Amino acid sequence: MSYHEEARLFIDKLLHMQEAILRKYQGYPHFGITSAMGKIRIGFDTYPTKTDSGMKKFWNRYREAIKYLIPGNQYPGHEKLKSEFDRLDNIEIFSTINS
């Protein structure tokens, strides 16, 4: 699987998880999460993410918003999601250095 496919699947997974969390906890304000989700969705419309280079540009631009979508320590899959984020981030940084 190429970098852009892996990164897109990871981001889609985070968006889906946060949508479920927002539905479950509707009474609480989630301004940061909804803002990050909105930025990422706008970015998907703006950047051509169907290529590795396009996804690298997207990742660089929205890195912090993507990281913000990772659920907190109380979430059972937090460590796995964090390590997957770090792996994709390191692939991206490594690829940029070698390009």
Q: Would you give an account of this structure?
A:
By secondary structure, this protein is mainly alpha-helical. It has one domain. The protein has four helices and no strands. The chain is globular, with a radius of gyration of 14 Å. The model has no long low-confidence stretch (mean pLDDT 87).
Write the layout of secondary structure elements.
Layout: H1 3-24, H2 31-46, H3 52-68, H4 78-98
Rg from C-alpha positions? 14 Å
How many DSSP-defined strands?
Answer: 0
What number is the mean pLDDT?
A: 87
Biggest sheet statistics: none
* Estimated share of beta-strand residues: under 5%
Apparent shape: globular
Tell me the count of domains. Answer: 1
Describe this protein with a few key phrases.
single chain; 99 residues; mainly alpha
Give a brief outline of the structure:
It is built from four helices and no strands. By secondary structure, the protein is mainly alpha-helical. The longest helix has 22 residues, at 3-24.
